[in-house]
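Q: What would this chain look like folded?
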Amino acid sequence: MSGNIGRRRFVVGIVIVLLMILAQQLLWGKLFPYSPVKIGFAKHELSNVVVYLQDGSEYSEYPMIDTLIRAVEKFHGLRFVRKPELLVFHDSDSYFHRSITKARFCAYPNGSLVVSPWAIREARGGEISMAIYLSHELSHTLLYQHMGFVNAYFFFPRWLLEGIAVYSTNQMGTTWYPSKSETYEYIRRGNYVPPGDFGTAREDEAHLHVKYPSTFAYSECACIIDYLVERYGKEKLMGYVSQLLDSYQHDEVFKDVYGIDFETFLREFRQHVNE
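A: My prediction, written as structure tokens:
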């Protein structure tokens, strides 16, 4: 009997420790964007979004974010299931502790979107367009809300997710992103990231000779989207994306929608670029 009691106490102790770790991560760690409680942030609920400003933040332009939602929905032909939540950080250390990224922005599958302090500084300094970058991330958020966790993390093609975001916001040719014509010229010179390698360790093996390798890859993905629209139309593109929201079989869906296999299409795309 005493042995059973001891084992139960041990199990209860482990559960308590795990719950404490979970609470710590939700409140002050990497799981913060998933937390229902945002300690140290002031909540501002607008018509289409919810914005949380970290204490001390002087970012007063946040009502602009509310105006971006309808354009994002219109392009994708989808509505947000729930209001996206934006977490605007004032403190860099807190941003690093409470997010999974060192990038300016990051969209999470639950509908949260974190904004770094330096993104705000760069926007105010004219280095980036906050409207373009936020619309890019809201594209991710909208698709995430319709595809679920497993698809978002493991199956939905990364190149497609980013290509749609760059294409839909006309991001090519802004800041560090090469324009369509510049991207085509880079590809003609032998620079190319196979879409399946995008966002993986294999991307580094591409040995790109471009000014900004990362943004070139993003623009390349957007050029693929652009060619799909140019050749087959936007309606078919969104039908392809819509099917993938509920499917883990990209190549099968692509062939079903477009009538050719994906690798054949990519060869045609590269041939088109070189014409």
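The two ends are 81 Å apart (CA to CA).
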